[in-house]
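Dear colleagues,

As part of the handover before I leave the project, I'm documenting each prediction I ran so the next person doesn't have to rerun anything. This entry is a single chain, and its sequence is reproduced below.
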Amino acid sequence: MTTHTVGIIMHGVTGRMGTNQHLLRSIVPIIQQGGVRVGTDTVIVPAPLLVGRSKDKLESVAKASGISRWSTDLDGALSDRSLSVYFDAQTTLQRAASVSRAIAAGKHIYCEKPIATDTKTAYDLYAQAQRKGVKHGVVQDKLWLPGLLKLADLRDKGFFGRIFSVHGEFGYWVYEGDTIPAQRPSWNYRQEDGGGIVVDMLCHWRYVLDGLFGKVKAVSCRTATHIPARWNEAGARYEVTADDSAYSTFELEGGIIAHINSSWATRVRRDDLLTLLVDGTLGSAVAGLRDCWIQPYGATPRPIWNPDIPNPIDFYQSWQKMPEQRTYDNAFKVQWELFLRHVALGEPFRWTLLEGARGVQLAEKGLESSRERRWVDLPDLAEIPTAPGAAR
């Protein structure tokens, strides 16, 4: 058995996403299962070092995860040659500078999105990584959600025929924090701290739309701040300076129109916190985070408009829930395993910093669209070849 040990600087894992999704539900289970098995004779084992600013928080996370190695010395970690990967799950405003330092230190990069708050900075990180010749990737977890994987299977089997529209609904009511605790950190609602639903969610919608349906060519977006004041973690009232809702329409290659509502100020009456309705000439499907319902052409009802009588059609009954035909692992863990294979074995990995920059671009253009009240085109972000002689 050939064992590849991959040392990972895990920076920012004392936060909600870093602790739960990346450490406790991804890296720790990979270690517990004995690493990433490749064939019958190769295994890749992550060896994480937890890095952050708070000694107390690091000790607590280390105890909860069973990971014994932690440090508050990022410079020392970046100089450690046994640690070949730098992972970043800090808040958005802190990410670009740290990733840039890690690239300069020759570390392979894997980081949360958005990778920056503006396209220029995000694209520059990609250019830095290509010039240095390091491997790099961005978390794009929703592509491995069971519901979206089922959509991809239907698409690949020709179920939809020609897809012409996608309608998405995302969000839920986030409590203000005065009488009932908020479910999201307060920085999410302060623009000066990198908050805002457009910066957060349009990065997701870029890779979901690009990956499942077609490249995004243009965006029309209207943002809103529906809840003007909230209460922070210390119980103090603060003014909301970031958008908490976005109503966006996207033009995709192939003539597909997608519309996605994103809101932290909506109450859910649908199948899941995220639903995507895909319409095609031969059939339609509705996917949530895990489940997917289908309606082929031959099972489509024939409604007739008549508001003077109770509707005779139960529209939910004409949809068929897709069966569970395979098992699905945690979406973050699946992408971690692919990235570890990329680092250790050089296997292809297309979810790079360039894809991260494209997500930031869509968010930036969405804000521009809302500000100027018009459609905004998305210019191509060019690929940059790896610098000659750079080691990968």
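The longest strand covers residues 2-11. The chain has nine helices and 18 strands.

All the best with the project,
I.
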